[in-house]
């Protein structure tokens, strides 16, 4: 089975999870963002912001989870499978924080290859911060640039999702993929 692996990425607060939720409601297989789970688990251990305290440890945990999601998608019979962020997002965030990381991060970016990558630009009208999202809108813009650079470095053609309602953004993605 040649399952299509499709990433929906973008900086914080761009509407990725809303689109993933819409896709799931429509019956598509989606692998949700796992960083919030890692953040919440660290908070239970008394670490308020693991990414800020120990970016490498946070990113190692995230990398393990995203590699597992990728492996799970290879065994998936549904077609396509949507990912709320891909492995290259980890490298982009580490570059944003100007943190060093081991070679296995870049190796994972080369090993976990996606068929399509849709990117959402920062959208100030919908941007909100919360307990797990500490970045302000200016930082979201910087992260967006790092995401663009990182995915392009790994030869992805990024597909921009226009600002619109969640339903119309989801429809745009599905029409681009010739699913509807």
Salient structural properties:
five-stranded parallel beta sheet; 8 helices
Give a brief outline of the structure.
It is built from eight helices and five strands; from the N terminus they run βαβαααβααβαβα.
Give a topology summary.
Blueprint: E1 5-10, H1 16-25, E2 29-31, H2 35-44, H3 50-53, H4 55-74, E3 81-84, H5 87-96, H6 103-111, E4 116-120, H7 137-153, E5 158-161, H8 166-176
Helix pairs in contact: 1-8, 5-6, 5-7
Q: What's the helical proportion of residues?
A: 40-55%
Whole-number mean pLDDT? 91
Envelope shape:
globular
Number of beta strands: 5
For the largest sheet, list the strands in their spatial order. 2-3-1-4-5
Overall structural class, as computed from helix and strand content, comes to alpha/beta
Tally of contiguous helical segments: 8
What is the gyration radius calculated from CA atoms?
A: 16 Å
Q: What string, H for helix and E for strand, traces the elements in order?
A: EHEHHHEHHEHEH
Query: What share of the residues does DSSP label as strand, in percent?
Result: 5-15%
Q: What is the straight-line distance between the termini? A: 21 Å
* Main sheet summary: 5 strands, parallel
